[in-house]
Specification:
The chain is mainly α and 201 residues long. The protein is 69% helix and 0% strand. The protein contains eight helices and no strands. The longest helix is centred in the C-terminal third of the chain and has 29 residues, at 153-181. The chain is globular. The mean pLDDT is 93.
């Protein structure tokens, strides 16, 4: 690996740091309140603008990663390729089933609303009865599956960046949820694990 190639991987890692940091920052209640003061009645479109920018940034990181000359962590085999495909498929299924419990329009923002004034119902059904963050579980499986399917350094950086982000990301997200839902969410925390499900008989 030459210095140019090394710096490309560093840039990719920094890109993920900026993406995840901005994700947490822009979702915080304090920042949202400041944007509402600045945007006024147009704040109802905040979620849609945020979702579009996040999607562009997210896809841009993968496009950039694809432009880097690959360095293989290990050479793919039929077994790793198949297992990676299965993990990514399972992650996709969990993501789709989890989204069934959520209004996609409100989640993405094409149904405009003021989320600082209109509190959504706390979802504890479906996959949310097994883990508090099923979409994060889905992403872990998809990114891990992608790494096994394409086991190069770029896909490893995708996976490691996600795993490093999740502990602080969940911490700040749940601080916000406690501020919104109070003791109801605290009780939910006590009974449902964050990422890894406990399947009870």
């Amino acid at each position: 690996m030459d210095i140019r190639n090394f710096m490309e991987y560093i840039t990719l890692a920094v890109g993920w740091i900026v993406f995840y940091a901005s994700h947490t920052l822009l979702a915080s209640l304090n920042i949202k309140r400041k944007f509402r003061l600045w945007m006024g009645a147009q704040y109802k479109w905040y979620r849609l603008i945020y979702s579009l920018l996040a999607a562009i940034f997210f896809l841009g990181l993968f496009v950039y990663a694809g432009s880097i000359e690959p360095n293989w962590v290990f050479m793919p085999s039929d077994g790793s390729t198949y297992f990676g495909y299965m993990l990514a498929t399972l992650g996709t299924i969990i993501a789709v089933k989890s989204m069934k419990e959520i209004s996609a329009g409100r989640f993405i923002g094409w149904l405009p609303h003021d989320d600082l004034r209109e509190k959504d119902e706390l979802i504890v059904n479906g996959w949310y009865s097994y883990v508090r963050h099923p979409l994060y579980l889905a992403l872990i499986l998809i990114f891990l599956g992608y790494f096994l399917y394409v086991p190069n350094l770029a896909s490893l950086i995708h996976l490691l960046a996600l795993l490093l982000y999740l502990p602080p990301g969940i911490y700040f997200e749940e601080k916000k949820l406690i501020a919104i839902y109070g003791e109801v969410y605290v009780d939910y925390q006590r009974n449902v694990p964050p990422i890894l499900p406990r399947f009870k008989k």
